[in-house]
Amino acid sequence: MFKKISELFNDRFNKTKKGIYQKNIRLFTRIIEKYPNNSIAYSIRGTSRKNLGDYQGTIEDYNKAIELYPNAKTYNSRGVTKCKLGDYEGAIQDYNKAIELYPDFADAFGFRGDAKEYLGDFEGAIQDYNKEIELNPNDAQAFYKRGDAKYKLKDYQGAIFDYNKAIEHNPNFVNAFDNRGVAKGSLEDHKGAIQDYKKAIELSPNFADAYYYRAISKDKLGNDQDAIKDFNKAIELNPGHSEAYFSRGNTRDKLGEFSSAILDYNKAIELGLNESKAYRARGIAKGKIGDYEGAILDYNKALELSPNDPDTFYNRGIAKYNLGDYHGTIQEYNKAIELNPNYANAYGNRGAAKGSLGDYEGEIQDYNKAIELNPNNAKAYYNRGIAKYSFGDKTGACHDWSKAGELGLTEAYDYINKFCK
Fold first, then answer.
1. Angle of helix 174-186 relative to helix 190-203, nearest 10 degrees?
2. Of 190, 200, 243, 414, whose CB neighbour count within 10 A is largest?
């Protein structure tokens, strides 16, 4: 197909820029040959190399420039280049030196904050962004970055404050609207989040992540069909969006479209979402269509990736129970409870497995514990009633069925009508 005019223009523009950088390298190489102690020539050649992606060559030139004339700007530029190579600690050393030479160097504080954030030092990053904002209080990008760091520390209100400031200084800051939506979603303000995603999409109609996150919020509000539409759009704009396939799978699972959900989980995994959550979700969906062996294979893989996930042991227990492997089921619930001693449903399901093996005392003990941990567990009351009736405790059984009915398990009233009159 023919390229669009804009693509042809960009190709020509990029080739022109590349030609300029290459020309600069040749020019300043000749200058360096003639004037080997010209630090500016090394610095400019280094910047041209950086723009062409030759980061090692860039650092060599900046090294020489600093050797000839130590200055804040070149230390800062070398730090930026080290970040490009993933050497964040080395970059921080260079930013330290730049700030030492020029204490009011706002960009150096900002870049040092970026490097700290890459290393997971979010508190340190915020301190640097504070200083950057102090030196340049109208810098929308600085507020935006500080908002990101606060978000990663789960300070969602603080993040929203900073995104507000970023938008105040730049009303068309697409990513600030998008990230503010994410922060609002984390505070369960999904209606507010949707408004932010709508604005981000208005400013950038091909912003796949804005559609993706809006779909998440719509799903949380129960607008499942609208959520599917947004997931579809996100995938249309970014066919490699593994999280969009995964999340669409979750929504389809919720809608009872289990086979379609499995197809989405397959695609997410194919695209590289090699995480336990993807295999666990696919296992759950397979269980819902009766493919318990397939479900167990997925749970096995999930546990390879995340060996201490109580939910995966719990779900593998369900699959084994449905295959009649009650001893195996109990082992799975034992492990789930070991990892999460307050796992009420694991106690309840283990009780059912024990009952299937004739261990009625153990069954009742597990139901007792499930109810202790979750007094509104209707299923545990219902099952405990059946176990008590098997022991001849009709009064206790009827009381439990009555409680289960009160909690919304209407089938308990069938037992009351049959055995408690």
1. 170
2. 200
